[in-house]
Amino acid sequence: MGVEGIGARVLRKEDKRFLTGKGRYTDDMVVPGMKHAAFVRSPHAHAKITGINTDAARKMPGVIGVLTGRELKADGIGNLICGWMVHSKDGTPMKMGAWSPLATDVVRYVGDAVAIVVADSKGEARDAAEAVDIAYEELPVLVNATAALQQGAPQLHPEAPGNLIFDWDIGDEKATAEAFAKAAHVTRLDIDNNRLVPNAMEPRAALGLYDEAEDHYTCWTTSQNPHVARLVMSAFYNVAPENKLRVIAPDVGGGFGSKIFIYPEEIVCLWASKKTGVPVKWVADRSESFLCDAHGRDHATHAEIAFDKDHRILGLKVETIANLGAYMSLFSSSVPTYLYATLLSGQYDIPAIHANVKTVYTNTAPVDAYRGAGRPEASYVLERIMETAARELKLSPAELRRRNFIRSFPHQTPVIMAYDAGDFDATLDASMKAADYAGFEQRRTEAAGRGKLRGIGMSCYIEACGIAPSAAVGSLGAGVGLWESAEVRVNAVGTVEILTGSHSHGQGHETTFAQLAAERFGVPLDSISIVHGDTDKVQMGMGTYGSRSGAVGMSAVVKAMDKVEAKAKKIAAHLLEADEADIEIKNGDVRVAGTDKSLPWFQVALSAYTAHNLPSGMEPGLKETAFYDPTNFTFPAGCYICEVEIDPDTGATQIVQFVAADDFGKIINPMIVEGQVHGGLAQGIGQALLEGTHYDETGQLLTASYMDYTMPRALDLPSFKVMTTETPCPSNPLGIKGCGEAGAIGSPPAVMNAITDAIHNNNLTMPATPQKVWAAIQAAK
Amino acid sequence: MAKVELVVNGRAVKGEAEDRTLLVHFLRENLGLTGTHVGCDTSQCGACVVHVDGRAVKSCTMLAAQAYGSEVTTIEGLALNGELHPVQVAFREHHGLQCGFCTPGMVMSSVDMIRRHPEGLDEATVRAELEGNICRCTGYHNIVQAVLDASDKMGKGAVKAA
User: Fold this and answer.
1) Is the pTM of this model over 0.80?
2) Which of A192, A709, A720, A765 places its Cα 20 to 30 Å from the Cα of A728?
């Protein structure tokens, strides 16, 4: 490792612009003639639209246009779709209801967009939006997923009878039933996974620009995957053909999944720009983000786990009802299925698993991927029930887990996944040591002396990243391939540009991707630039989500660098009159191994471009492209230990210690990896202690601002003890597993296991607010 | 329309704005100082913190007209002659930022916090003082480290200079 290469704790190249106010986010973009949009949104959770009158709004000061869904449909703009086909267990395809970017006949959740107003200023657009007169006939409302499946429940979409989108299963039901029949002990648990609002700090935004002279559209938007946005808007929504649509995701202020999806607003802004003849910018206010960003989680689960007399797991049964909200968002079907139930084996050797998942429509915001996307739900089910089982069996939670760890790899689980590598004892040992697990009982006694209830809980999570082998996900219903692309351009002076289809919205790609080239070519970081986020610059890409940028995006860069290196060596061998096999690139020089014959890197690059003396038949230039399609998922895993102290008089929980030991495989930049873990932990702890999304029975979102939805603040969180172990991933060239989501996946069960340990009552749901904890303490008395 | 005259980052500026214009919108839209961000609509997130007459203020809680005659420093005005402020340096060295969106407000709040605590800071105080700034990326761990480090390095003399 060089000082700037793989494994180095390099400070971030992108920091200076963010620290000096020079970041450029979508809302910072200004183009000549630009006007501002406000959306008219449904105040009702479920209603028929019986009339829309825009006359008064059109006459308001500054108004340029007021557009509705009928005009949008007349122009052939298509409905929003879910891009992953899931089939029910009876073989029927999922029942997708129509989702028009602007509702025409029925609104299905509070915030459903009905019209757009374009005006000179933001304030004028908003004033006029209030003057759009929409007549509604209210319909009965559903907010709870379980209630949505009851006989006689109100019907949301004609396409989905009984509000059931699909009734899917995985695993072997018969083998699982047989395993339970042999069980010496069965633990049962009802487990809710609370609905969350992602809350990237930058609200979503879109700036649509139609250039009539060129018949060309440009969209600046807050996207984690601008190429996917272009593809979907072009292929499915009829906004414009791909060659006439440029999507730019400039600096993006956090995503956490919520900026993967293509929402109505960017489609409507592009279309409205053509209709009104002006560039149209829309920026969500925070209340709109709460109402309309895709939410996360919202599962209701019943789980049962069977053990033999030696406490080895025989089988696992899981039944989940997942609330997908009012419409199927872009990847909503994959989250509670292939990203969830395929991880239910956890770190354990479980011979038989069966999971059934029913997804339903309700009059709530659409639900889709949020940091972890399905894997936090799986970890929560498994790690809560393992801890519960340990208590019932009177075994230490660590011992029960150890007894069931997978230790031989590759390991085929009963739920599709083939784990390629791992060492679960290593992370468990590391975290127990760091947490002084052995000394806990003494600390509990000491805390009791101060009147506090102290508890400890652990969670041994596994997750799947590096999504994913295209043929495999294609066979499971994905509408896209999940490879990544890269282009490595060595300029004539030896500087390097890396174009990647991955997108950084906080992950530090401009630094870590550059570290790869610094390592390979010995070029200083300052001479390496990363280009991303613009469909006109980068050929094609699938974007950043599912912790895939390292495992998939970087692998594409490695593949392209391999080609560049091979060509550079050919050129050097020719110039140095040596055998190509003897050429090595070291410390910025291209040399003949074991001799003093060498050329500086820039000289080789220059030779490629002057082309005065290249090997016979070689094309000039030093620039290569690669597409990398992963061969398997990657499997980050780890052990988290949480220690809490609870004030029995108030129910307030304080996290007094949080230890995270993760195996992410090979690490490119430990500083950035630690930062990713910290952020994930904060979101997972937020889910466990603070964040709850509440709709009332009429479908009004009660938690639609930072006054009502509790975001984790600095005072709510401890300093974290994070560490890593390393089992290189055999499935990609760098040995990378992915680190972006682990913190949010592993932490909720650790926190809840700790609290329920402290209060001796296992009946507690997230978020474990002081009120709920206090009530649980009283109930246990 | 309201007449707005103020000094921003050491430069006298004049402008007109709708009466309802908030200081943050005046900075961003009239002056093009887009480093100051809007992350919420309830004055909770702190992405818009600037200094008004030397004190940290959420620029979404104040009308532009109310800032008449004030001296305002935004994130763009914090580095002097191309030298990053010690708090900016510390945020970089401790990886106290990821997506960068909350960062301007975090930095401006932290500078103010250090100024108000010439006696120095401890972790609990830093965490309590960051109550008005929300970050979704970092889990605050490295922000807290950055503020503590900057506070140590700035010491009493440097605090006055800031």
Assistant:
1) yes
2) A720
